[in-house]
Design a protein that fits this description.
It is a single chain. The chain is mostly helical. It has one domain. Helix content is 88%, strand content 0%. It contains two helices and no strands. Helix 1 runs antiparallel to helix 2. The longest helix has 33 residues.
Length: 67
């Protein structure tokens, strides 16, 4: 069961990583309004934190599965 949870966290990590990249591109786009760029930068940071959280949880679940 821990292996399945680790896999699910890896999928969530990838999804949040993709969203973070997308929002980071929006934050750097000079055609967007400054307020939209600020919002996108904030969302990118949130998604990156979530991706790191899921990566940590996945590593913990893999470690639990090995023991």
């Amino acid at each position: 069961m821990d292996a399945l949870k680790a896999g699910a966290h890896k999928v969530q990590e990838a999804a949040h990583g993709h969203k973070a990249e997308h929002e980071a591109k929006k934050a750097c786009d000079p055609d967007k309004k400054p307020s939209d760029r600020m919002d996108a930068a904030h969302c990118a940071a949130k998604h990156e934190a979530k991706a790191q959280e899921h990566a940590c949880r996945a590593d913990c679940k893999v470690a639990e599965h090995k023991h």
